[in-house]
């Protein structure tokens, strides 16, 4: 092998992981999705790092709540989180799936409501509860689903004043002048910094779910979706993930195609861990949730590692050529999910290595 060939081999080889990387990811928690983990940290086993706050933003029915529940299920079975309190602040009361069926027997035994019982009603109550958890000295994984369902003390007072004004005017439908907004953004700016700082003391995790809103004005041409809540929600987040529905998954029956699920897009817009924006596609079915094996098969086809479509796939490593569903059934039936996952990781890292920009370190 000549000098040029040796140089090409070095450039093709994955960059060695720095020693600090292993330390950074120690005790990290999986999202329950290999592809999401890779998009978040570059590691197939870790999406969330202890001691940090995360923001998950997305459209309705785009998989936000499901990924949150998967994260809690991963914590319920992870030895490093055996002493963590797993708190689900279900402010929307929208997570109505059978938890034991979809997420195993361990999670229902450990899942708890916030201190004081019942979902949080206001932003002030949320941060009071986080302060109580921190004062207890026991680490926790706290999932707020979602921030949009919270009001604030200021908003409640304004609503009471407006109601009284309408009553005095004798017209329940009368417009009442007043300031716009509920002060939530200001409260987050004041309180999230303190709450986020407490997380590092005991290795707790905080996840906020947010709904998207349609953007208006000139910027809507470039960013059709936005969110409420203020800039602090993004500023203090270690990762910010945006969810959307990329397409429908259908099955034929009685001569028609019926929707059975959705293909979801998860985009990491802010990333303090890996430093790069990445996006992945996940298959989600109403009957089974996020399809880990199916999503991994689609990724390998989408990246050109395997030839195929959503219907037929050639998977030489498995000695298979045929319908996609039969391949998935074969992998699950034979317990070969780890082999599939290893192929996904190799493909991901090969692509990252091919995109790497190598430069001589400036500082020794």
Q: Structural class, from helix and strand content?
A: alpha/beta
CA radius of gyration: 23 Å
Q: State the distance separating the first and last CA atoms.
A: 31 Å
Into how many domains do the coordinates divide? 1
Could you tell me the number of beta strands?
14
Give the percentage of residues in beta strands.
Answer: 15-25%
Rounded mean pLDDT score: 90
Count of separate DSSP helical elements = 13
**CATH fold category name:** Rossmann fold
CATH class: Alpha Beta
SSE pattern: HHHEHEHHEHEHHEEEHEEEEHEEEHH
Structure explained in plain terms:
The longest helix is centred in the middle third of the chain and has 19 residues, at 184-202. The strands form 3 sheets. A 9-stranded mixed sheet has the order 3-2-4-5-1-8-9-10-11. The protein is globular. The protein has 364 residues and is α/β, with parallel strands linked by helices. Helices cover 39% and strands 23% of the residues. It has helices at 3-12, 19-25, 34-41, 64-77, 99-103, 106-110, 123-136, 153-169, 184-202, 232-235, 292-302, 324-333, 337-355; strands at 52-58, 85-89, 111-112, 140-144, 205-211, 213-214, 225-226, 239-253, 256-271, 278-285, 289-291, 307-308, 312-315, 320-323. α7 packs parallel to α9 (184-202) and α11 runs parallel beside α13. The protein has 13 helices and 14 strands. A hairpin with a 3-residue loop joins β12 and β13.
């Amino acid at each position: 092998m000549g000098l040029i060939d040796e140089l090409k081999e070095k450039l093709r080889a994955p960059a060695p992981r720095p020693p600090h990387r292993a330390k950074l990811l120690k005790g990290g928690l999986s999202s329950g999705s290999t592809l999401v983990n890779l998009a978040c940290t570059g590691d197939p086993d870790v999406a969330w790092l202890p001691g940090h706050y995360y923001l998950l933003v997305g459209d309705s029915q785009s998989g936000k709540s499901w990924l949150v529940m998967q994260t809690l299920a991963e914590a319920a079975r992870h030895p490093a989180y055996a002493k963590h309190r797993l708190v689900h602040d279900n402010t929307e009361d929208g997570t109505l799936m059978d938890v034991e069926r979809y997420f195993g027997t361990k999670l229902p035994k450990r899942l708890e409501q916030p201190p004081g019982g019942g979902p949080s009603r206001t932003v002030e109550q949320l941060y009071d509860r986080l302060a109580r958890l921190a004062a207890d000295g026991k680490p926790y994984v706290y999932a707020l689903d979602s921030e949009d369902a919270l009001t604030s003390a200021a908003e409640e007072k304004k609503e009471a004043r407006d109601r009284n004004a309408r009553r005095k005017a004798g017209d329940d439908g009368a417009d009442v002048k007043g300031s716009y907004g509920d002060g939530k953004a200001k409260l987050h700016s004041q309180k999230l910094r303190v709450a986020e700082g407490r997380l590092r003391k005991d290795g707790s995790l905080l996840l906020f779910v947010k709904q998207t809103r349609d953007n208006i004005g000139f910027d809507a041409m470039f960013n059709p979706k936005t969110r409420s809540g203020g800039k602090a929600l993004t500023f203090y987040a270690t990762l910010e993930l945006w969810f959307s529905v990329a397409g429908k998954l259908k099955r034929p029956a009685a001569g028609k195609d019926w929707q059975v699920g959705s293909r979801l897009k998860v985009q990491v817009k802010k990333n303090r861990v890996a430093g790069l924006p990445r996006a992945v596609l996940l298959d989600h079915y109403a009957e089974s949730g996020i399809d880990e094996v199916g999503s991994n098969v689609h990724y390998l086809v989408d990246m050109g590692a395997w030839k195929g479509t959503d219907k037929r796939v050639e998977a030489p490593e498995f000695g298979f050529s045929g319908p996609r569903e039969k391949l998935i059934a074969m992998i699950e039936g034979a317990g070969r999910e780890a082999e599939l996952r290893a192929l996904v990781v190799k493909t991901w890292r090969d692509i990252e290595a091919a995109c790497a920009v190598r430069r001589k370190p400036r500082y020794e």
